[in-house]
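Readers of this paper often ask what the protein records in our data store actually look like. Such a record has a labelled line for the sequence and another for the backbone structure tokens. The tokens are whole numbers drawn from a learned vocabulary of local backbone shapes. We quote a single record here, exactly as it is kept in our systems:
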Amino acid sequence: MLQNIRDNSQGCLSWVIVGLISLTFAVWGVGEFGLSNNERIIAEVNDVEIPERAFIEQVNQQKNRLRTMFKNQDMDLSFMQEQIRTNTLRQMIDEELLIQSASNSGMRISNGLLAARIHSFEAFKSDGKFSQTQYEQILQRQGLNPISFEMDMRRSLLAEQIRQGITRSALVTESERRIILENQQRLISYIIVPTSRFADAITISDEEVGTYYKEHAVQYMTPEKVSIEYVELSAKDIVLEEGLDEDSLKQSYQDRKDLFTTPAKWQISHILLEVATDTSLTDTELVADKAREVLSKVKTSEKPFAELAKQFSDEIGSKNKGGSLGWLASGDMVKPFKDAVKTMQVGDISELVKSRFGFHIIKLDDYNPEIIQDFAEVREKIEQDLRKELSESEFYTQAERFSNLAFENPNSLDTLTETLGLTSKTTELFARDDNHPQDSVLSNQKVITAAFGDAVLKDDFNSEVIDIGEQHAVVLRVKNHELAKAKPIEEVKKDIVATLTQDKTKAEVESLGESLLEQVKQGTVPVIQDLAWSTSQLVTRKDNTVVPAILQEAFKMGHPANDKAIYQSLELDNGDYALIAVLAIKAGEKVEDTKKSQYQQALGDSEFNQLVSGLKLDAEIKDNSKKLADDS
């Protein structure tokens, strides 16, 4: 709960503490009124359960923090509800993993450290000093007790110690060295031998074409192709012979009446006087007395109900909205609350209503009664639904016969078409890797796989029934088959000449480039027409004035010694050849202290995240949030 508290975060300490000791009472959204007494578990971490109620409290605290941060207590956070819930659950799981890891390692929070932290909170001080009485009173008012509060504090401090121990001990030496290297500069020059230099000098003979064609025959083969005959069975093509009588439609209406019913809803505001679960009978009576006083003020005061709700209600989720709970269905309310609401008229204010949350004063703002659509309004939809159901049922009946007939008559599709009244279709020849229109049966990879499978292609059998969509099946067999064969040399000669020309050009360029490199290494400065070294320039790793491949290679090369340049050759992506010279190196600047601190923090956070990720890999984590959301 206190995972994000820092000793040096005094500016936000007070609202963090308020968030910590504020118990969100009856409503989270509107769903809390519908919870049963059985504790629901939102996640389990190595068999340790995280209750949904604790999760909801954390979510509400996160919302309160955001509203405080933006100084808007009425801020609508529904647009980021899912993100808040996801982040909160992840943080709770991470904290539980850290606590378990720390406990298994023998780590503990001493009583002295715990006391020092609690004594430091301004909320618990009177006249600048810690007050035990004020501490207990604040916790009691919020429905908390010192035992559970201090247990949460121990967990939070333990998790925080682990995090700070890692982030503060991160060494920045490697990062600093890396930054210095990244800022390094190199004085380079280069020469490019282009392939175009040899374009007119390369000739390819017919003999060379013929030899290459024979040696690479596999590259110049037409693909294997098949055409297929197939039969489809689809629910959308099934025509029902029997009509639907009126009595069947009316019976279906009665059976599904809940689908055509809009439940009643009540728009409600309330004032809640909280009674904690461990409150004594005496204290409960005191709350009841206070509730009666508030009820009297509500009935006699000229102030609006909303204003009184903001003044007297203990329920954080609704008091800032004037006590409004919005629209509630019957299932959203606990029984005493619901029983009272159902007896009220719009504008009524109830007597005191006691629930497990405390004492409610309820105001009925508006009411939408249950609405049931007449049979005539939904008759067409019922008929459509029934026809669809009957069609689906007929499909599965025919699908079974479809499968049996295909299996019992493996050498032909005729029995299928004749018995079931279906039509066979055929395709043009196609290869395994051809592209097909989206609406074509051949766009389904399972059809292609079956068409080229041994049972269909070699044994000449029908395929098995292939499911290619919702209530859509097909059986196929091969109609024609063309083996892969060599393309005529005349058809591929142009491609072969281009390939050989490229290979020969590349060889010539590489030969000249390596020759130049060797001359340079021997101390000779070669002079070749149209080729010259570029003007030397000081570049960084992010320089955009040099060919990227040349720049990358220049920073991979070693360091010049004794003012003697070093050289390297490189083949470029376009086939050109480059010679690179590194003439000198200028070391990068050292990292400033502020940047070093930033790098240390980033490195520490990275190491901490790696620790948590490692703990997750070895942990058994069950996330029930989606299931609980679906159930709700």
